[in-house]
Amino acid sequence: MxxxxxxxxxxxxxxxxxxxxxxxxxLILTPSQLKHKDEDLRPFETDGxxxxxxxxxVVALPATKAEVIAVLKACYAEDIPVVTRGAGTGLSGGxxxxxxxxxxxxxxxxxxKALDPVARVITVEPGIRNAAVTQAAAPYGLYYxxxxxxxxxxxxxxxxxxxxxxxxxxxxxxxxxxxxxxTVITIEGEELSFGSxxxxxxxxxxxxxxxxxxxxxxxxxxxxxxxxxTPTVTKVAMAAFDDLATAGRAVGEIVAAGxxxxxxxxxxxxxxxxxxxxxxxxxxxxxxxxxxxEVDGNEAEVAEHIADVSAVLTKAGAVEVKVARDDAERExxxxxxxxxxxxxxxxxxxxxxxDGTIPRGELPAVLKKxxxxxxxxxxxCANVFHAxxxxxxxxxxxxxxxxxxxxxxxxxxxxxLTTCVEHGGTITGEHGVGVEKIHEMCVQFPGAELQQxxxxxxxxxxxxxxxxxxxIPTLNRCAEFGHMHVHNGELPHPELERF
Amino acid sequence: MxxxxxxxxxxxxxxxxxxxxxxxxxLILTPSQLKHKDEDLRPFETDGxxxxxxxxxVVALPATKAEVIAVLKACYAEDIPVVTRGAGTGLSGGxxxxxxxxxxxxxxxxxxKALDPVARVITVEPGIRNAAVTQAAAPYGLYYxxxxxxxxxxxxxxxxxxxxxxxxxxxxxxxxxxxxxxTVITIEGEELSFGSxxxxxxxxxxxxxxxxxxxxxxxxxxxxxxxxxTPTVTKVAMAAFDDLATAGRAVGEIVAAGxxxxxxxxxxxxxxxxxxxxxxxxxxxxxxxxxxxEVDGNEAEVAEHIADVSAVLTKAGAVEVKVARDDAERExxxxxxxxxxxxxxxxxxxxxxxDGTIPRGELPAVLKKxxxxxxxxxxxCANVFHAxxxxxxxxxxxxxxxxxxxxxxxxxxxxxLTTCVEHGGTITGEHGVGVEKIHEMCVQFPGAELQQxxxxxxxxxxxxxxxxxxxIPTLNRCAEFGHMHVHNGELPHPELERF
Lengths: 499, 499
Prior knowledge:
Largest interface: A-B, 83 and 83 residues
CATH topology of the largest domain in chain A: Alpha-Beta Plaits
Keywords (chains A, B): FAD, Flavoprotein, Oxidoreductase
Strand order of the largest sheet of chain A: 15-12-14-13-18-20-16
InterPro entries (chains A, B): FAD-bd_oxidored_4_C, FAD-bd_PCMH, FAD-bd_PCMH-like_sf, FAD-bd_PCMH_sub1, FAD-bd_PCMH_sub2, FAD-linked_Oxase-like_C, FAD-linked_OxidoTrans_Type4, Oxid_FAD_bind_N
Protein name (chains A, B): FAD-binding protein
Cofactor (chains A, B): FAD
Pfam families (chains A, B): FAD-oxidase_C, FAD_binding_4
Structural class of chain A: alpha+beta
Oligomer: homodimer
């Protein structure tokens, strides 16, 4: 059942499965909600991690909870794997289809069911876009805090699957801290509701277990999200450094000063120059590194905090510190940061965005190591990341038409993640494991934890039909990976088509 | 195996089990670490929920992780239930012993293993007292936020088991928000480590599943806790109301104004008078209700917030608003609140402390209902509680020597919890379910969630040996309870000795 550990299913098996499941699904869904011809399936073959792609066997687009239940029951009865998909913006291949499975797309379930501005809770369906939640809350002076950079497109269901973060998660937490309650459907069609509107909920905290479970446990059909009051005042300070390690140390200094910024982002020379060339954000192009530090709150507290931040940054060795003089300049500073990925993308035929975390104190050492690896792999690497929570996003630049470069990019990425683990960090900050980092999970969890994860999954999904082959490697696969890892430099997933 | 659904084991069975397990444990523990004679077992027969008591079969006091592993392996091999116990201050009977089981007391494992003031992480053993963590962190200008009122005595292991809160959890979260990593031992002796020092951790979030699991999954042997910088300035406003419902509405107004107080506590007339008589906190005894609202942060933000809070309270109908003029007066205000339970205790031979939550907006309605129930049950009920997070602590006063009163107190408590659920709340805010509220779990989870909880538990504890009979009722028991509930007014646990 593990898509990573077996060869792809042969066409005859796929055809046989399709012949079994389609008639059952036709009893549940209208023709426009059910796709099973190759040309209709093509748009679904990949999520945001384009190198990993597969044609799904069938795509189902339910519009109601009852339809979700019926589709899942049919798949369970016929032993057909199910991969749930939101907007398909995920960056770790978590929604990569199964060639012999149903891709369950939830884009038709995007309603707002309720908005209680007094309790500050919004009840939504999973397909709603992240930005649409804040849009709906704005008239009440409220907003939804988690803001992944794909927020215009990505869906709340996907955010829950990946436990998405964003620029503001240092202060306001990840998705898990902002979802109060979720109603899910298991592969057997059972409806379960976990969490509550209270701070604590009795029983085991399966709500937290569901958030970040990468579609491997159950399908979210409704969620109650916490809304926060929009801050009265927001200010941002930009600090330019003539040395990367000094900027890394400054991050620790800010947090050590007792300030929790609403956002604390870092760009290295390559990224800030790319961003500046791309859209004139006003960045000093001489700088080796740039920090953007945002504080929010009421008038008095922001005034005091921005003064403190500026003083700490200067003392920590910033050559220039500039507080945006108004909202327009603040937005310009952020525009550069938010478009740094596409800006870097313009400089290279392809780039590979990594996502690992390290304790803040390790920033100077790890940044140096990543920089030094450039020579080893013969590839450039830019760094644009959530410095405040130690969440790195190295962008490895390569040319996908050059097989050697693509392979070296994958190896470079893998070494970055292993380095993160060696420095007490993790192999993903907010993008999830998916198919991309399934091997690195063996590095992250060398002990009995993986078996515990499998047991936990089995408590929801006894047949192993929910998103098989993602996020949690089999123990066999880890043994095999250790072997590969020592003896040669194979691609993580040679069995998958790349580009 | 479920202590709630079966008669107590007979003495012959207990003796036979004890004869099997004691020799095995003698190979692991010194004589002072192993108690199995009735007179030595007596001090362990109850936790903080005194009505529920049982003599454990054996008490084991391991001093190292290796000893914990060996004890659990022995119990697993001999099919002996294990109840883990911290300081025994729990208020829901979660650590009530099993008459045929080993009580695993972790008081000898109370070391601080590491304190990193830069990363703001402290690594501790489970038996350390909550207050000792903050004491150790204080020299670095840091503290541990969760502060249950038992913090002088209660242990971090117990806090993790119960997901403890406290006065400050509205702003700083519960235990689950302040534990970064936990190392646990399963009943099979397997060591597992969940969580990380990063915001997100890959794999399923079993860390959150462990917090609040009431000793039913595994034994915590080490935890990394988040430390916070001690706020520079703290101020408290006291508001007196001539009407309980108005005070309830004022709570909503404060939060609606965008202020997140560090603490927002409420006392009704009975409690504030009791507290005032007990230790002259300076409370206006004419008031029908009192709110204490604390704000913390830097100088400027506290000045602005305390002014805002005072204005909101006045506008919301407070007759008198008084900001403590200095730290001495602030501590006096809090002293009254913190000693309100014993103060109320002085007014009655016995009292029963309830713990339910409701959405803040429901406070006025639910407070009124609880007040009205006094007449129905012929008992007085005082209210002292964490108003900001809607976490009620009604104190039902009764005379334990009068069987009728004790029974009515239990029924009164049960009706309060059912009322909380009806108003969209939960049956516990921070005390846990334990044995006390196991029946109300049937009300809270009428659907398939309970079965999911059992499946989840089985993924850790296939034989069901960890704290059997607590927190998660069997489905049979719920069916039976529904029957009881409809047909008569029996005590929740007639099979248990009371007092």
